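notes to self, project folder thing:

trying the whole complex as one job this time. last attempt i did each chain seperately and stitching them together was a nightmare. two parts in total, labels are on each line so i dont mix them up again. if this works i'll redo the older ones the same way
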Amino acid sequence: MKQAIVARADLGMGEGKLAAQVAHASLQAYEEADARAQREWKGSGQKKIVLQANNERELFEINESADVEGLPHALVRDAGHTQLEPGTATTVAVGPATERAVDAITGELSLY
Amino acid sequence: MKQAIVARADLGMGEGKLAAQVAHASLQAYEEADARAQREWKGSGQKKIVLQANNERELFEINESADVEGLPHALVRDAGHTQLEPGTATTVAVGPATERAVDAITGELSLY
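result (full assembly):
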């Protein structure tokens, strides 16, 4: 079981900003998962991996693929109080789900 | 309502590593909170702020203070598969709780 969180590398987010957006996406996707997936993921150490997308289009494609495959997922848009324009799509979390299911969607992406 | 996630700035964690540790701490502290705090925090946009500690001692002090004050909190230790020694304390999340309660413990820290 794992969760992949994909963040845009083209926005120049600061480290703390990036971390907050990733945490946001992670929690939202977690809450989309069913109780069994939540339990299995936590029981196995809640593995998380942070990956990069190069632009908004790539982010949307990941989100769409997760939706089509029926995996828990969440797209985060920044409120825009700092650094970014309001509504900027920053991150997508996919999972918790099986490693195989998550890799099928995010396996081509580089580590952030 | 907010949650502060405090991460050690002295470990030289990469951006993706930092983000994963922050997300880990965030979710664990969230699960420590009672249902009302969870609901109120989510209803107000689940505000998160990422702050820095300079060393392990500062991190432990924040964790201890949150414990004494009865706030939801979680200390994360890295599993050590990459970058860090196994068991290295990396991050502490405090809250979700009122802004006032969280600031009383973390208000002196700088943004990460």
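what i see at first glance: The longest strand of chain A covers residues 89-97.
need to look closer tmrw
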